[in-house]
Each structure stands twice: as structure tokens, then as C-alpha cells.
Amino acid sequence: MDIGYARVDLDRERRQGLPEIVYGPGKQAGEIAGIVKVLLDRNDGPVLVTRVGPDTAGQVLAVVPGGRYDDAARLLVWRPALLLGFGVAVVTAGTADGPVAAEAAAVANALGLETTVIRDVGVAGIHRVLAEVERLREADCVIVVAGMEGALASVVGGLVETPVIAVPTSVGYGAALEGVTALLAMLTSCAAGITVVNIDSGFGAALAAYRLTRRRP
Known about the structure:
five-stranded parallel β-sheet; alpha/beta; Rossmann fold; globular; Translation Initiation Factor IF3
């Protein structure tokens, strides 16, 4: 649907099970509000806007009430989905990975996934992640959020049988290369079968987890 400044994909819900999700940066508050109105009117599922600052979020909610804003995740949500009975553990290597993990958890929850966040269990203190093994194994899927050398994804991948989705973050000093080092480490993990998404893409990890639910009985 062409609304002048955007062509809203109204058929995406039929094709993929979810309405189009709006990427907030680069859009004016009025443009975001206009797109959200169309999605709410013409689709039935949850409507999300990612990477939105608090000022823009406030302006959008003033025009399109009924949504909620998660400041930590920078996420706007209208009509969150009912829980699907699919549990996701979101695990961070360090506290600095928190904003990316918050996005992953909030998006997953808005899409109907039950989320548990396990914070600050990086491999520099390996006992921390080993102490959480039972909780990790209870989840239907684990999202691992890690910067620096990104080793936590391999460790978790070697401890659980369920799908592991790795999110490299831009956290780290010089040779961390703003997440490239973690990305390459996760892509070359010796724990076979790990899925890797883009740097800092908590959103992408949550969508990957959601897709795992689509053909479950």
C-alpha cells in the first residue's frame, strides 16, 4: 500500500505470519505513526517499531495510543501476541551486552515467546555459565549475546541440544573491530549448527527464534 513516503507490505502477515516490522531510524515520528496506523487497520498481528528513542516514541504514542514503549529495548509494541508455549533463554556474556539482549528479549516476548534473561555469564569466569546449565537446557532455544571474542556462543553450543542463535555485539577494545571479531568467531564455531545473525541484531535473533515455532505441532 503506497502512502507516499512508504510502501507498506500488507501481505507480509499472510506470507510470513507477522505484519511488517518497522525500522525506526531515519523516519520522522509522523511517518512512523502513519505506517503504524495502516498496519493496525489492515493486519491482525502485533505491530512493532524497532530502534526508537524515547522522544520519538512519545510523539508516536501521542498520535497512535494503545501501544507501549520499552526504553531498554528501544521498542514500540501494539497488540503483543499471546504466548505460544515456546521458551527462549537470552544469555549475555557481559553487562555491556545488555542493550542488544534487551532488544532480543522484548521482540521475542512481543511475538509470543516466553523469555528468560540470564546476564553476565561470560567465559572469563566459566563457572558462571556452568552454574546456569540447567536453565539453559530447559529453554526451547537459546540466544547468546556476546562481544569481544564471542566465545560464549561456542560454550553454550556445546552444552545444550536445542537451537542456539548467536548475536555478536560491537562491545570490546580495538581488535574486537566493533563486533567483527565476535562475528567471525561465531561463524567459525566448532559447536556445529549455531545460527549467527548480524552484529548487534537482537531483533534478528528474536525473529530467527520465532521462525522456529512456525511448524511446531
